[in-house]
Amino acid sequence: MAIRLEDKKAIVAEVNETAGTALSVVMADYRGVTAGDMTALRAKARSENVRLKVVRNNLTKIAIRGTEYECIDEALVGPTILAFSMEDPGAGARLLKDFAKGNDAFEIKGLAFGGELMGAEQLDRLATLPTLHEALTRLAVVTQAPVTKLARSLNDVPGRITRVVAAVRDQKREAA
Hints:
It contains 6 helices and 5 strands. Helix 1 packs across helix 3. It is elongated. By secondary structure, it is of the alpha+beta class. The longest helix is centred in the C-terminal third of the chain and has 44 residues. It has a 5-stranded antiparallel β-sheet, with helices on both faces. This is Large ribosomal subunit protein uL10. InterPro entries: Ribosomal_uL10 (IPR001790), Ribosomal_uL10-like_sf (IPR043141), Ribosomal_uL10_bac (IPR022973), Ribosomal_uL10_bac_type (IPR047865), Ribosomal_uL10_CS_bac (IPR002363).
């Protein structure tokens, strides 16, 4: 079915807006995946703030012009689903990686992050990035460690003084 020009413009504008604010994008070939599985994937994507887009390649190529995802232009061949990660750069990669484990027909084509096109073999690199919450937790642990060590050291000083005084007392008792 032909798409009217106004509809094409709306699709291009929507994909361009999504690509302009996304942190990363993962591309996959979805041929052979059932409609029920795709519906489940879309529901999970919504809960993880990943925007899935299935758009004709020529419209996608127009939509990504002027964004950091222009690099995926040459990878847009055949049926492609795009997973744009909106809050966490690794969210789309984790989502599609988990989905591909249960669906042999689903094939990851590649991904783009920071204006760089990467092959499907780099998916684990992006999928293992910590979430914002995990990164903040790691930062808190790293910044808290020196303070904790300082507090332990300061608390140890009175204990050492007490042990020295007790040792001196014991020596004086033994000498007397």
